[in-house]
């Protein structure tokens, strides 16, 4: 039985033109629309002052019981966030929506790639309530377990001669 929950949201992204020899524009996710608008991906919503606001498209936000602890940390952080990941694309407009997630652990995996643009946005109130209910149903605290180190085998750490003979005592210690 699949106990995961999924919800589709809309993602709004801003492209701002730059006067720079290194980049022609800067990209930034700016908002999440809790209800998916019926618009095609990368529909222009507004253009003003060198900035273009796009509806980047739909993103599925999935909640899995095995990740409830990560969702709880997100909620307990003081500012519940949804993370939007954008990646450069070959077609117009030059960027593509990769995902939106509420799992900070998943974001860490994408930050290792180096080329992805990741932005934390405020989690809309309807999604906060949904995530709180999900965590209440699925979060199971894990008891803290302190690891114990194995005792070192001092003979295994000793220096041995290549021929297998025992080390000889000298006036300054073993040889």
Automatic annotation (TrEMBL):
Organism domain of life: Bacteria
Biased composition (Basic and acidic residues): 150-163
InterPro entries: DUF3305 (IPR021736)
A family per Pfam: DUF3305
Region (Disordered): 146-175
Name used for this protein in its record: DUF3305 domain-containing protein
Originating organism: Azospirillum thermophilum
């Amino acid at each position: 039985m699949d106990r995961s929950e999924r919800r589709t949201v809309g993602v709004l992204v801003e492209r701002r033109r730059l006067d720079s020899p290194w980049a022609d524009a800067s990209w930034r996710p700016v908002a999440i629309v809790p209800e998916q608008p019926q618009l095609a991906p990368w529909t222009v919503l507004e253009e003003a002052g060198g900035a273009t606001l796009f509806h980047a498209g739909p993103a599925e936000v999935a909640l899995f019981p095995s990740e409830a602890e990560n969702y709880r940390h997100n909620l307990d952080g003081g500012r519940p966030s949804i993370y939007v990941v954008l990646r450069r694309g070959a077609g117009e407009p030059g960027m593509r929506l990769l995902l939106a997630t509420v799992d900070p652990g998943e974001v860490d995996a994408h930050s290792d790639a180096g080329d992805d643009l990741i932005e934390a946005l405020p989690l809309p109130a309807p999604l906060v309530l949904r995530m709180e209910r999900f965590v209440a149903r699925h979060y199971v605290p894990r008891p803290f377990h302190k690891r114990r180190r194995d005792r070192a085998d001092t003979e295994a750490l000793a220096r041995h001669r290549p021929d297998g003979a025992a080390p000889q005592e000298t006036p300054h210690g073993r040889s």
